[in-house]
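User: two proteins, same treatment. go.

Assistant:
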Amino acid sequence: MGSDIEQLLRCQHGAVSRTQLRAAGLNPNTIDTWVRRGRLQRMLPAVYTVGPASLATRAHGAVLWQLTGVVSHLAAARLWRMAVDEHCSMTPRARPCSITSARR
């Protein structure tokens, strides 16, 4: 992979969109060949990863797929290491909480 693509992958936790690959100079046939050969793994439509998908990889991939979306709720809390789960909870029955507020 070229240095532009490698830089994208580093900055985006291993996720990259087809649009970004095309902008980096890859033609559609090359992208499809890389997918067939396992060099890229399809994560979502037109979004790929090059290795095991961590939570950060999956979150970045979702944002690349849904460009107007943001990571929110429990996924965001886990990314910020704020979520409490059964492995580190002082209260094992803690439930996730979602808050939505009106824009002022």
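Protein 2:
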Amino acid sequence: MSPEPYWERLHDSRDPLALRLKMVRLCLEHARNISLTAQAFRCSTKTVRYWLARFQTQGAQGLADRRGRHHSRPNKTPPQVEALVVELKRCYPFAGQRTLRWLLLTRHQRRLSATT
């Protein structure tokens, strides 16, 4: 059995793909014994099933990380409004969120959400 859990090894690993491939190979070598593989890698059976399914559908490339930024931001504040906020903040450096929202509404007829 491994000395540290799967997620700790994955976090410390320089090659997570190799670690996941090792997990899948162990599972396949032991006649798809998911429970045994989960115990060996100190992870849940759900994790083993997840990577096994990705390997079966996409091959070794399916074991790669899919992290990254979102490619679209539909609720992003328009650049013109951002420029107005920056300009107001430059003119009123001590103004807070409420004041800036009020200034945008009264002077520029722009309404912003509270989270913007």
